[in-house]
Amino acid sequence: MSTNTFPVQRVGDFTITAISDGYLTASLDFLSNIDSCDAARMQSDAGQQEPAAVHINCYLIRGAGRTVLVDAGAGGIRQWGGRLRAHLALAGVEPADIDTILLTHAHPDHVGGLVDPDGQIVFPDAELLVHQREVKFWQDDANLARASERARGNFLIARRVFDGYGDRLRTFDEGEVLAGIHALPLPGHTDGHTGYLFESAGRSLLVWGDIVHFPHIQIKRPDVSIAFDQDATLAADTRSRLLDQVSAEGLVIAGMHLGEAGFARIRRTNGEYGLFYEADRMSA
């Protein structure tokens, strides 16, 4: 990504900008229902120079009197990402400018950027909106007790974020969460995994969160899940259903693990889905 341009889509009153937080590394061995050699070949065929690199997107929304951020990247946790704040500054946005954060789910590569290394909140004037099932899952001590050692760390990170935002944390179920923005439950990856549908002036765009981690594999092969999914079968079902919907509707989609182009459409040809990136950009 150039240092002075960002991928952008305009949806009526909303300007939606993809802001990269950087990358994390996830082994192709984490994928299920596919041989790792086949997965590596699909990545190579798609021109992916680093097959195990997973890009981290966040989305900045300006318009209708609001400055909204969807997810906040990893913030450098586990040496993942950490570029969000610098890129927001290039886009002319300071942390105090953000009035609302919409969370797709509470995995570390989505909430790590919400607190600094000292545990202080990064966006001091923002309200944090999260699906009620997501908060319930991570705050459940029984779930924590059953978790692996690595997963316990995820619980502690999520709880630190929820506690940090305190009375600025607001939960929802589904429906309109802000004017022109509807929450769409997309369960499977996590219990409260949520997409956000932006609608204005007859245009629509869906931020679909973590429907895919390796888009060039999982869009062609929606049955392929990843070890990060809480319910792999439900995640695959949700992915297949959503791919049907967005391809039929020609909907622009945004995803936290799409490439740095940030926005795409899904088209179905001869029974197979394909990913087609959108190319609009704007100067910072």
Please sum up the structure shown:
By secondary structure, this protein is of the alpha+beta class. The chain contains 8 helices and 17 strands. The protein has helices spanning 36-45, 84-90, 108-111, 132-139, 141-146, 149-165, 215-218, 232-249, and strands at 5-11, 14-25, 31-32, 53-63, 66-70, 100-102, 127-131, 169-172, 175-178, 181-185, 194-200, 203-207, 225-226, 252-254, 263-269, 272-277, 281-283.
Average predicted confidence as pLDDT: 95
The amount of helix comes to: 25-40%
Q: Point out poorly predicted stretches.
A: none
As a percent range, the share of strand residues is: 25-35%
As for the CATH topology, it is Metallo-beta-lactamase, Chain A
The gross shape turns out to be globular
Widest beta sheet: strand line-up: 8-7-6-5-4-2-1-17
Rg (CA only): 18 Å
Largest sheet: 8 strands, mixed
Structural class: alpha+beta
What is the CATH level 1 assignment? Alpha Beta
Count of individual helical segments: 8
Question: Alpha-carbon distance between the termini?
Answer: 12 Å
CATH architecture: 4-Layer Sandwich
- The tally of domains stands at 1
Order of helices and strands: EEEHEEHEHEHHHEEEEEHEHEEEE
Number of strands: 17
What is the CATH homologous superfamily assignment? Ribonuclease Z/Hydroxyacylglutathione hydrolase-like
